[in-house]
Amino acid sequence: MSSPAPIAIVWFRDDLRLSDHPALSQAAQSGAALLCLYVQDESARPLGGASRWWLAQSLRSLAADLASRGATLVLRRGPAAGIVAEIARDTGAASVSWNDVATAPGRAVADELAARLADLGIAAQCCQGDLLAAPSTVRGKEGRGLKVFTPFWNRVLARGDPPLPLPAPKAFGAAPRIASDTLADWRLEPTRPDWAGGLRAHWQAGEAAAQRSLQQFLDGAVAGYAGDRDRPDRAGTSRLSPHLRFGEISSRQLWHAARFAAAERPAIAADVDKFLSELGWREFCRHLLFDNPDLATRNLQPAFDRFPWTTDPGALRAWQQGRTGYPLVDAGMRELWQTGAMHNRVRMVAASFLVKHLLLDWRCGEAWFWDTLVDADPASNPANWQWVAGCGADAAPYFRVFNPVLQGEKFDPEGDYVRRFIPEIAGLSTKLIHQPWTATPLELAGVTLGDSYPQPIVDHRVARQRALAAYATVRNN
Ligand code: FAD
Q1: Among this protein's residues, is 362 annotated catalytic?
Q2: Given 129, 150, 180, which residue is the final one in a domain?
Q3: How does pLDDT run across 326-346, given as a tens digit for each residue?
Q4: Phi-psi domain of 84 (left: phi exceeds 0; alpha: psi -120 through 50; beta: other)
Q5: Can you give the pLDDT at residue 477?
Q6: Is the pLDDT of residue 1 over 60?
Q7: Which residue in the list 195, 344, 409, 437 is annotated as catalytic?
Q8: Which ligand 1 atom sits closest to the C-alpha of 251?
Q9: Which residue range(s) make up the domain with 232?
Q10: How far is the CA of 186 from the centre of ligand 1 (A)?
Q11: C-beta of residue 99 within 8 angstroms of C-beta of residue 115
């Protein structure tokens, strides 16, 4: 009788896919029987509500994809290093493989696991596949990460194409079943009340859905992306961010698919370059987090530590609920609440409104986005908030205070986006849709400002002056 195949554990992390998964491919090629494992370890930043919902869908999809190849996804909860090492010991596994997650907590837990496995005499394999370029490969002269996007991105581009993505293993042997939690045990999805109806209506999680979204984007909206990406009234972007966040698709897959499309259709080459540079921002944020583990809590520019933020729970609530009286801001905040996402242009305007018009600390907004975005990302969320607030890397200059009316008129010129999310003012004319308070009673057509829709909670000109004065204290410091 031949002896059973050795067991190889594949530890899934922020990489809930089968294709372009170096750790899985390598373990499958070894001929071992695979034990696929996901550990919910909340010793890092606990996920927000919308992300928990997405994670549940994504794990369900991954489990189904593994089941179609005869394998089960084992779910466990607790400190990951201890749990993975314990399972490796108890099952007599020959090896454990995982993909690097280049963040401080991601590296710390992997280092601890590697040390435990070394003590047990079990082989450990950490693979690269998360980023286009690992943080160690893009450093300044003094060995530090770059803080300005353009030189950063030029350095990434100069490295040439990243490795080609790997196909999903067609088949592999499965290790004997071991005990697993169920998804229901983890209570990731809301029940009482079940507020996730809007998320279900707008999204489908999982690797197959991610691949479909990419294909749809490359067949459609990519043509014109460079201009349309700023238009919340158009379906001009890829909507891939939550898929990327949970690793249902890799940035290498995006890179090569987009480059291939551009080679076939040279007319979209400039749009593809723009799309990849947006992916570059994601990468830039990851590198920033790598060098600044406290990105979500500490100003990258220490001068902002003395910024005179105000405290105003009423204003914060009005912003969260989409009741500031500025239609573009309110439409964005309602889009977020209903769908778990917000268009990038509107994210910038809504975030700027919080920190500049309301003078509320960017961390309040970051925390709200963290809880409500399906793509809430430990790097992209704080890095973008710091960028908007002016305290981050390569940040928007402090004196740039977005005017929500002009932004609306420029990027939602017919008011279609505002009408979609604020039905109570949908009957206003296009001239008034971004500034209903300027309407005469006749023009208001049944809208009672201050009742069915709020009056502006701050006057733009007053707020702008106040913001500039507050920022001047930072500059003078
Ligand atoms: P596309 O335009 O199709 O872009 C393709 C991909 O590039 C995106 O999926 C995303 O992964 C990446 N990308 C695009 N813009 C950015 C950017 N500015 N920073 C980092 N990556 C980018 N993005 C997140 O993924 N998670 C967050 O938590 C997040 N929080 C944000 C908070 C604020 C205040 C702001 C201003 C932006 C934030 N973004 C965040 C960036 C951006 O808004 C989203 O990535 C984008 O709206 C996602 O839509 P899309 O996939 O259709 O983007």
Answers
A1: yes
A2: 129
A3: 999 999 999 999 999 999 999
A4: alpha
A5: 64
A6: no
A7: 344
A8: 11
A9: 131-163+207-291
A10: 28
A11: no
